[in-house]
Write a structure and sequence with these properties.
Oligomer: single chain
Structural class: alpha+beta
Low-confidence stretches: 6-28
Mean pLDDT: 84
Number of domains: 2
Distance between the termini: 38 Å
Order of helices and strands: EHHEEEEEEEEEEEHHH
Shape: globular
Number of strands: 12
Length: 240
C-alpha cells in the first residue's frame, strides 16, 4: 500500500496562509503536489460545529485534532489531522489554507487510525441496525471472526431549564463479524451460542482465566472469539 506523509508542520502552514494571495496559491500548489489525491480529502463539505448550548461534545475520546492515519482508495496517508464525530458517524479533517474543519466523504474511507492505536473500518451491512449510519466500527480483533465496537452518541433534550438545551450521551455495542454477517452481543448466553460453543467447556476455560461477562465484557467477548478460532472445527457462520 502506498503511503503519503503529511510532512509540512502546521506552524509553517499558518505562517504561509497569512501571506499575500500569490504566496497562498503557491502553497496550495505545493500542498497538492505532495498529495496526489488531495481532492479525496476535501469533497465532504464544511463541518458544522455543535451549538454552544449543547452539553458535552460529539467526538470520540478527544475534541481536538490528533495525528492519525487514513486509507482511501488503497492509499495510506499518515500524519493526518483527524477527529471522529460519533454522533454523525463522520470523519473530520482540517483544511490548512482556509482553516476550516472539513468532512471526509465517508464512502471513500476504507479505514482510519486515531492516536492511541484506535482502528476504525467502514463496513457494509444489509440489515436496518439503527446506529449503523456511515458504517464506521472500531476493530478490536481482526481475524476470521472479527470483534467490532459501534461507538455512538445520542443527542437528548435537557429536562431542566438552564444553560444547556441538549446533551450528548455516549454508548457502544459489541459485534462479532464473519463473512459479511454481524452478530450483536448483548448477553453472555447469546455470545456463547452465536459461536456454537459448548457452555460447560467454555465456562471452565473462562473461569480458569478469571473472566466474567458482567465484570469484563470486552475481554470476555474477545476470548470467546479467540477460543472458537483455535478449535479444529471449521467455523461456517453464526448459530441462531
Amino acid at each position: 500500500m502506498l503511503k503519503v506523509k503529511f510532512f509540512i508542520p502546521f506552524v509553517l502552514i499558518f505562517m504561509w496562509a497569512a501571506q499575500i494571495s500569490a504566496q497562498n496559491q503557491s502553497f496550495l500548489s505545493l500542498y497538492k503536489d505532495q498529495l496526489p489525491y488531495f481532492q479525496e480529502l476535501i469533497t465532504g463539505g464544511q463541518y458544522g460545529e455543535a451549538p454552544v448550548n449543547y452539553e458535552g461534545n460529539p467526538y470520540f475520546q478527544v475534541r481536538t485534532f490528533d495525528e492519525g492515519k487514513l486509507s482511501i482508495n488503497e492509499i495510506q496517508y499518515t500524519g493526518v489531522q483527524l477527529l471522529y464525530d460519533e454522533h454523525l458517524d463522520e470523519l473530520v479533517t482540517f483544511h490548512p489554507v482556509y482553516r476550516q474543519k472539513i468532512l471526509i466523504k465517508p464512502e471513500k474511507v476504507e479505514e482510519f487510525q486515531l492516536e492511541g492505536g484506535y482502528i476504525f473500518r467502514r463496513f457494509e451491512r444489509e440489515d436496518s441496525y439503527v446506529h449503523h449510519e456511515n458504517g464506521f466500527y472500531q476493530v478490536i480483533k481482526d481475524g476470521e471472526i472479527k470483534v467490532l465496537i459501534k461507538h455512538y452518541k445520542t443527542l437528548d433534550p435537557v429536562k431542566e431549564v438552564g444553560k444547556y438545551t441538549h446533551v450528548f450521551n455516549e454508548d457502544k455495542e459489541y459485534f462479532y463479524w464473519f463473512d459479511g454477517d454481524f452478530e450483536v452481543i448483548r448477553k453472555k448466553k447469546q455470545a456463547i451460542k452465536s459461536l456454537g460453543l459448548n457452555k460447560k467447556e467454555i465456562k471452565k476455560h473462562l473461569k480458569d482465566k478469571g473472566l466474567y461477562f458482567a465484570l469484563e465484557k470486552e475481554k470476555y467477548i474477545l476470548e470467546l472469539a479467540r477460543f472458537r478460532e483455535n478449535k479444529q472445527e471449521e467455523f461456517k457462520g453464526f448459530f441462531e
